[in-house]
Amino acid sequence: MLNQTNSRNKQIKKGYIMVWQPQHPNAVTYAGEKGWVREHRLVMEKHLGRYLNQVFEVVHHINGDRTDNRIENLKLMSPEEHTALESGGRKWKTK
Ligand SMILES: [Zn+2]
């Protein structure tokens, strides 16, 4: 499992699982290599069948585990909603 996660094509960077997708239109640069995409955004994109807007769409991890990229753990939000949530906005609590 560790060997798979730490392969050339999939690495954990800054707590997020990054996937090597150089052909992706919104790939970002990590360690001097352009072509990485955060896996949770890819999962959401597959779920929606379209690319996410890099500025206006944030994918939040519901249980707080940034490596848990099951679709059930992901929630698409606006940056405003996400900031309110991450800064302790209790109104967004799902329980
Ligand atoms: Zn979040």
Describe this structure in words.
By secondary structure, this protein is an alpha+beta fold. The chain has a single domain (2-92), classed as Homing Intron 3 (I-Ppo) Encoded Endonuclease, Chain A (Alpha-Beta Complex). The protein is 23% helix and 27% strand. It has helices spanning 2-5, 39-48, 79-86, and strands at 10-13, 16-20, 28-30, 33-38, 58-61, 74-77. The chain has a 4-stranded antiparallel sheet. Strands 5-6 form a two-stranded antiparallel sheet. β1 (10-13) and β2 (16-20) form a beta hairpin. The mean pLDDT is 88. The site of zinc ion (ZN) has 4 residues, from β5 and α3.
What share of residues are in beta strands? 25-35%
Bound compounds: zinc ion
Strands of the biggest beta sheet: in what spatial order?
A: 1-2-4-3
How many helices does DSSP assign? 3
Low-confidence stretches: none
| Structural category | alpha+beta
Summarize the main sheet. 4 strands, antiparallel
Describe the structure concisely for a colleague.
The protein contains three helices and six strands; from the N terminus they run αββββαββα. By secondary structure, the protein is α+β, with helices and mostly antiparallel strands. The protein has a single domain (2-92), classed as Homing Intron 3 (I-Ppo) Encoded Endonuclease, Chain A, CATH 3.90.75.
